[in-house]
């Protein structure tokens, strides 16, 4: 399959034009990043979005890998002198990697098997005669087998000869591509995934799977992952059950037509052995692997969507924040940051057992609030979170006559990972690791994206079974999400950390560090062109990065937009044509003037030297220069008093924040210690297949308490209106 055929195939699969695929692949092959292509090469791609571009990238990678494998297989079989025209045609027509591997299986170098040993004993001709592939005048299998008895070759009698022949026939059947495909399809269609308990003591999270079975074709991803984990922890024994008689019937239909009637019983015995010993176990492994891969992809997709929504939570701008990382024995770590995220002061307080310095701790926090005129207290949601919340709520009540002070519970997932990281050590070399997590808690409220990119996404805690899925695939997917989010928002070139800059299109960890060094040595950037003076940033890196880097107070107002420098000349021509001098807010003026514009739009675009998608983007950016897309989202819920689980009553309506979305529902923070669960059946009056159709991480939702189990720490919620 050549590139043109690949473009055609991908276009048909994704519902696109082959030219869109061809142009997109050319840009990807030229090492252009997905965010850059999606934002600045719309004329080439037909305005494909990032998801479509990544789908093209993934399919092209698969098809090219399959072509390389096809060539390897053809070369290998040809070297063996076994490449017939029919086999070559089938290999060249194969459309899936699995088809290629099935066709190659009989010719693939393998370890010594029972069939290998039988061939070495000269029994392959006997197997061929039994299967009707070689003629013989003998109709009695015993009589035929006796002609192959040879003590020197360790074939002492007819039964030994027949057993060797059966081993060869069993291997032939197990390596027949058509038989494998039939068995594979039947196993996926009719097989059952079964689990049973091993010898276990006490309660486990896997009790519902102690006597469990579900059709392979219907089992949902989160159950597959749960079964895999239970098996890994040696709590469960998992297997795939099939109708053996039906499978043997499929094998006989393919294998038996040419078998002489007098030898049919011998061949059936070989096929039975083939299924039980070779094909069955092989197909079970395939099915389990395929189900795991499917479940992995689903879990990774959910994780990626949750991560994206978490990273794009709106920042809390212009506020001084106190971050508290709560704890009992080791105390609560407190940090104060200013409006820009700069660390001002830190301390450790001990309001809880065993020290019980409650009044002193509250006094210390109050001193910091008053000294720095703090606006918000952010409390981590870990150990001692609710006890610390009680103290903070009391403090807010104490000072409410003097100032407005609010608090919020913030997820501290990954804060400890950050505290011990190289990035944290470089940021705060003079602080102990335990005194860095509180800063992260405060900063992730102030600007979630800028802070959370410093942490391995797998540690942020918005996934399901994230430690059980394919870690390489998970890392790749989450890296794409981070890259997409950072570039969608853009970053301030003069304030962004190296951790944030390295995710910008065209930049690397090294060039990101070099940008920070350049700032330290030369002061603020005043225009985007100065980027070219940074070591390691040439024309190619500049082309991909420049549009995503903002300079709010630079020499050129266009540098505070996502208009690419390559379009500055067209932008200036456009403004001049409509006699607009002030760039700020000029997009709205342009829209009004374009309504009465008499000339043909295509003539104007030709004059400007740009396509319509770029033209539309220019106008949008001129309307709201420096716009952060996160600012339009609902702000976090800030509180001034505390709610306890004991205060909850069934039927009570509350406002909460979605913290995690999984297959079976969404976990919502309603202000008590334990997040409540909105089961998927309680999300809407209609049927909801996927919770992500209804909610996303960070959404503010109204929920009704429908069940409370204080002993088990479970709260059931509903989003259904009465």
Quick structural overview:
The protein has 29 helices and 15 strands.
How much of the sequence lies in strands comes to 5-15%
Over the alpha carbons, how many angstroms does the gyration radius reach? 33 Å
- Helix content estimate: 40-55%
CATH class of the largest domain: Alpha Beta
- By CATH, the superfamily of the largest domain comes out as YqgF/RNase H-like domain
| Number of beta-strand segments | 15
Describe the model.
This protein is of the alpha/beta class and 722 residues long. The chain folds into 5 domains: 3-107, RuvA domain 2-like (Arc Repressor Mutant, subunit A); 114-191 and 242-300, Orthogonal Bundle (Tex N-terminal region-like); 321-462, Nucleotidyltransferase, domain 5 (2-Layer Sandwich), CATH 3.30.420.140; 498-631, DNA polymerase, domain 1 (Orthogonal Bundle); 645-718, Nucleic acid-binding proteins (OB fold (Dihydrolipoamide Acetyltransferase, E2P), Beta Barrel). Helices cover 48% and strands 11% of the residues. Helix 12 crosses helix 15.
Q: How is the topology of this model organized?
A:
Blueprint: H1 3-14, H2 18-29, H3 34-40, H4 42-45, H5 50-79, H6 85-93, H7 97-104, H8 114-120, H9 124-130, H10 141-146, H11 158-174, H12 177-190, E1 192-197, E2 211-215, H13 221-232, E3 236-241, H14 244-255, H15 264-311, E4 321-325, E5 332-337, E6 343-349, H16 358-372, E7 376-380, H17 385-399, E8 406-410, H18 415-419, H19 422-427, H20 437-446, H21 448-452, H22 471-489, E9 491-492, H23 498-501, H24 509-522, H25 539-545, E10 549-550, H26 568-577, H27 586-595, H28 601-608, H29 612-623, E11 653-662, E12 665-669, E13 676-679, E14 700-709, E15 714-718
Parallel strand pairs: 4-7, 7-8, 9-10, 13-15
Antiparallel strand pairs: 1-2, 1-3, 4-5, 5-6, 11-12, 11-14, 12-13, 14-15
Helix pairs in contact: 1-2, 1-5, 2-5, 8-11, 9-11, 11-15, 12-14, 12-15, 13-15, 14-15, 15-22, 16-17, 27-29
